[in-house]
Amino acid sequence: MNIFRLAGDMSHLVAILILLLKIWRSRSCxxxxxxxxxxxxxxxxxxxxxxxxxxxxxxxTVMKVVFLALSYATxxxxxxxxxNSYDSENDTFRVEFLLVPVIGLSFLENxxxxxxxxxxxxxxxxESVAIMPQLFMITKTGxxxxxxxxxxxxxxxxxxxxIVNWVWRYHTEGFFDQIAVVSGVVQTIFxxxxxxxxxxxxxxxxxxxxxx
Amino acid sequence: ADEASAHDEL
Lengths: 212, 10
Prior knowledge:
Distance between the termini of chain B: 18 Å
Low-confidence stretches of chain B: none
Number of helices of chain A: 8
Radius of gyration of chain A: 17 Å
Mean pLDDT of chain A: 94
Distance between the termini of chain A: 38 Å
Shape of chain B: elongated
Number of strands of chain B: 0
Oligomer: heterodimer
Structural class of chain A: mainly alpha
Largest sheet of chain A: none
Number of helices of chain B: 0
Number of strands of chain A: 0
Order of helices and strands of chain A: HHHHHHHH
């Protein structure tokens, strides 16, 4: 554990809490892609199966349980509790276009050809593209509430901090997880355009912003 | 990479 990794995890937690509290307080999930949230719940589910097989640390276990619980709570709020506000007409990204290649790749490129490892790899690859329905929705509607942008900012920050963490771990302990690093870098690139717009538009007071 | 059994990152 290093400071970059911890800050990354905290940033991830903040992102998830921002989204959950936004939906809860406004009693609305307008502008939120339910599909992206289902994909994230699937990411956590398939990655954290090792909760049952290997213990790493109390921190690790607690965070996994928290992420799982929060992601399922978010999906519940969107599709059950506040489903009347769910903007399904604009949440039209075809997730099969993500799932099919991701499933295929996880069978081709993994650390060992076992169900657990293939599911772990699937979760890593899926996480890198799971935000695409959300970004697609923002592009389609032309704008997002500033709170949604804060959510995306912290999600992107989490990814950027993980890259710094990997650089740190590579130099201090020789750690290099190729699958995680390559897909993590790809994932972070998706946020670059958003980051630029976030800084130039949201932080300079316009509140709302649109993606080109 | 032989970290196949222990993924210690979240």
